[in-house]
């Protein structure tokens, strides 16, 4: 008789005895993840478990709400109680990327990708606020990194020389020299990023017992120096990024409550930490995404005023001082856009729909400048007028670009993904429309060639297509007495009823389909923008048009000046040119601090009793230097309720007072614990009665 497998019962406060025990809901053994396991080993172990428990194509909702995802509950429970490795979330999201990129045609890979995403965010819900920040912003160390140190400091120094450091930093192919500066390979790596990441994880997940890889050919090398949020953005983990617990971190980075740079000095390094206004350098606030976006809007407003001034002035014969300022503004905009593309890479740059407007503005500006210069050189004032007409087209993109800040609001930001999807479906449908249009245009032109020329017939058919059906009925007899009427009735019926009705239905279905997930799309774009703006390795970031000043001064000096001198000089120039901006930021934060004292929506960092797994670090110690440590069982709900009752909000500790939502959650948890204890007691009574019987 085969041995019976005993199913364990999860009791609050109990721990899983060992990862070698069978999971609660599956026969698969839980992965044995040690604290010092490398990211490579963690990815391999978790992939083996996911591949074994998810062996059928199931949907995301089935994994989340039905018994198909029971094994995921066991994995989350084990990871939250037993595992202290800080690369757990990074590994799960890397596997999400891998399985999402595999197209097996059966839906099995999609199911495994969804499973990894679900485990990642459920694991975060078991952690304290500080632990969530540490796990999400933990960067995968490189093979040469020292303990509790970040190589970003070295790469930031190297990157200052040419201002080329990417969001996906610290990544090099196996054939590249480990001592070669990162920025020398950024330009040619952008288009190959997705294929590199896919191949890297594929080497670990192709086989459960794959062990034949050489040590110097690490398949996880493309993920080095990426944090979990960056991997989530690459993996299109939109559900993960839209979770409230993750958005709290994104919002904290957006508001500058979580910073990566707190000092503007040659020795400063990039590490995630909570902002402390008493110790941080005021010039570090220039890297806060919220202020970057505010300055961007102000820059475009100035751009728009210069644009209107040049068009109203409309000097055909000379280049005016106002036009020269417009050229300087445009050059600063182009240089900043190129720097943004190099920093972000093609993957992230294409995510922001406003970058399409920027590219169009740059193209129109170059055409205007060339026509203007050629016209003045040849004294061809007709060409100069054409140049000003081309410049007038700039308003089509510049005016919406000024108001792009509205896309950061939930309402307007939700509509943009819907409009994008509707535009895509519209372009697909227009292929059929063009085919039918060309067919009827050819027929009408040949049949009525005696009465109408081809351009005239093309205009008539276009008017009919856009709703002027009476035009077709007026000329159908002139086209041909025999074939004209039936062909015109057929064309009017198809264009006005069939095609227009079908297009309306398709766009309506597209809108209703996307609007259900529009919030995830909006939060994804918002998260990518925040990560782009905040996680760059560049120590000094010059706002336009000051970036031209730095370009003109320091590019030539690179040829005969040491890197230390360049860094100190750049810092001095940044302090001199951006002092007014920093003063405005300080005044704004002072006013906000006076008005919104104790705002519960603000991200205040770790609370006093929010972390039970390890002590809260001192403010001056960076977060990335900590490795999460799991203690023995967490306090039960009754203890949490007693702690909340003992806590009374004091005048000097208003942020630590429990909110109504926290109190209600604690009371509900206490009721669940009492109900669980009652059920266990009833089961024990029944078992004792059956034994006596």
- Shape annotation: flat
Mean pLDDT: 75
The tally of beta strands, per DSSP, is: 2
* Major sheet details: 2 strands, antiparallel
Instruction: Tell me the series of helices and strands, N- to C-terminal.
Output: HHHHHHHHHHHHEEHHHHHHHHHHHHHH
In the predicted model, the low-confidence regions spanning at least 5 consecutive residues are 1-25, 146-193, 207-216, 604-658
Helix fraction, binned, reads 55-70%
Proportion in β-strands: under 5%
The computed structural class is mainly alpha
Cα distance spanning the termini: 26 Å
| Number of helical segments with 4 or more residues | 26
With strands numbered from the N-terminus, the spatial order across the biggest sheet is 1-2
The radius of gyration is 31 Å
Commentary on this structure:
With 693 residues, the protein is an all-alpha fold. Among the domains are: 289-408; 411-516; 637-692. Helix content is 60%, strand content 1%. It has 26 helices and 2 strands. The chain has a two-stranded antiparallel ribbon with strand order 1-2. Helix 19 runs antiparallel to helix 20. The two termini are 26 Å apart. Residues 1-25, 146-193, 207-216 and 604-658 have low confidence and may be disordered.
């Amino acid at each position: 008789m085969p041995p019976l497998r005993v199913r364990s019962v999860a009791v609050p406060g109990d721990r899983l005895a060992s990862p070698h025990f069978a999971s609660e809901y599956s026969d698969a053994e839980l992965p044995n993840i040690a604290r010092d396991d490398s990211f490579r080993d963690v990815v391999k172990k978790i992939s083996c478990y996911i591949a074994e428990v998810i062996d059928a194509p199931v949907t995301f909702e089935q994994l989340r709400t039905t018994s198909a995802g029971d094994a995921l509950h066991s994995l989350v429970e084990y990871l939250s109680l037993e595992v202290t490795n800080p690369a757990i979330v990074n590994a799960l999201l890397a596997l999400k990327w891998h399985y999402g990129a595999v197209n097996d045609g059966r839906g099995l890979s999609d199911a495994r990708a969804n499973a990894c995403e679900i485990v990642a965010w459920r694991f975060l819900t078991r952690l304290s606020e500080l632990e969530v920040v540490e796990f999400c912003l933990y960067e995968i160390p490189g093979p040469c990194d020292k303990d509790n140190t970040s190589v970003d400091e070295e790469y930031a120094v190297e990157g200052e020389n040419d201002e080329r450091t990417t969001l996906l930093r610290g990544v090099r192919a196996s054939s590249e020299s480990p001592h070669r500066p990162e920025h020398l390979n950024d330009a040619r790596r952008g288009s190959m990023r997705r294929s590199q990441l896919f191949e890297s994880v594929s080497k670990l997940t192709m086989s459960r017992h794959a062990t034949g890889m050489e040590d110097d050919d690490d398949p996880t090398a493309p993920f080095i120096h990426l944090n979990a949020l960056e991997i989530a953005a690459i993996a299109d983990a939109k559900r993960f990024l839209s979770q409230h617990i993750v958005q709290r971190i994104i919002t904290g980075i957006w508001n500058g409550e979580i910073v990566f740079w707190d000092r503007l000095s040659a020795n400063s390094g990039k590490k995630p930490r909570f902002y402390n206004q008493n110790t941080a350098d005021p010039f570090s606030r220039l890297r806060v995404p919220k202020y970057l976006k505010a300055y961007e809007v102000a820059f475009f407003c100035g751009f728009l005023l210069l644009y209107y001034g040049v068009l109203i002035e409309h000097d055909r014969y000379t280049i005016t001082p106002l036009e020269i300022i417009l050229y300087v503004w445009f050059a600063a905009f182009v240089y900043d856009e190129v720097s943004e593309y190099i920093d972000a890479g093609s993957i992230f740059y294409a995510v922001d729909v406003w970058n399409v407007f920027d590219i169009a503005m740059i193209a129109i500006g170059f055409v205007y400048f060339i026509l203007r210069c050629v016209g003045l050189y040849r004294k061809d004032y007709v060409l100069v007028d054409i140049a000003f007409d081309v410049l007038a087209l700039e308003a089509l993109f510049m005016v919406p670009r000024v108001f792009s800040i509205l896309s950061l609001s939930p309402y307007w930001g939700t509509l943009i993904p819907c409009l994008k999807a509707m535009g895509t479906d519209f372009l697909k449908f227009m292929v059929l429309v063009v085919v039918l249009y060309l067919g009827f245009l050819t027929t009408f032109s040949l049949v009525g060639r005696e009465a109408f020329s081809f351009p005239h017939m093309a205009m008539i058919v276009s008017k009919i297509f856009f709703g002027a059906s009476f035009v077709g009925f007026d000329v159908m007899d002139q086209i041909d007495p025999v074939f004209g009427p039936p062909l015109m009735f057929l064309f009017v019926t198809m264009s006005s009823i069939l095609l227009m009705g079908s297009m309306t239905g398709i766009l309506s279905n597209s809108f209703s389909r996307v609007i259900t997930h529009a919030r995830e799309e909006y939060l994804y774009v918002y998260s990518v923008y925040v990560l782009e703006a905040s996680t760059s390795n560049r120590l000094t970031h010059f706002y336009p048009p000051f970036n031209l000043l730095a370009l003109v001064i320091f590019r030539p000096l690179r040829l005969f000046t040491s890197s230390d001198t360049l860094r100190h000089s750049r810092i001095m120039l940044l302090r001199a040119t951006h002092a007014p901006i920093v003063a405005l930021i300080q005044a704004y934060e002072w006013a906000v601090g006076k008005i919104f004292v104790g705002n519960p929506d603000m991200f205040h960092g770790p609370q006093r009793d929010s972390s039970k797994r390890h002590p809260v670090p001192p403010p001056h110690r960076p977060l990335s230097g900590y490795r999460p440590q799991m203690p023995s069982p967490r306090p039960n709900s009754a203890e949490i309720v007693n702690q909340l009752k003992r806590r009374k909000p004091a005048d000097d500790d208003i942020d630590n007072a429990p909110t109504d939502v926290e109190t209600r959650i604690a009371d509900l948890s206490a009721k669940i614990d009492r109900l669980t204890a009652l059920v266990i007691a009833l089961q024990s009574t029944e078992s004792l009665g059956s034994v006596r019987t």
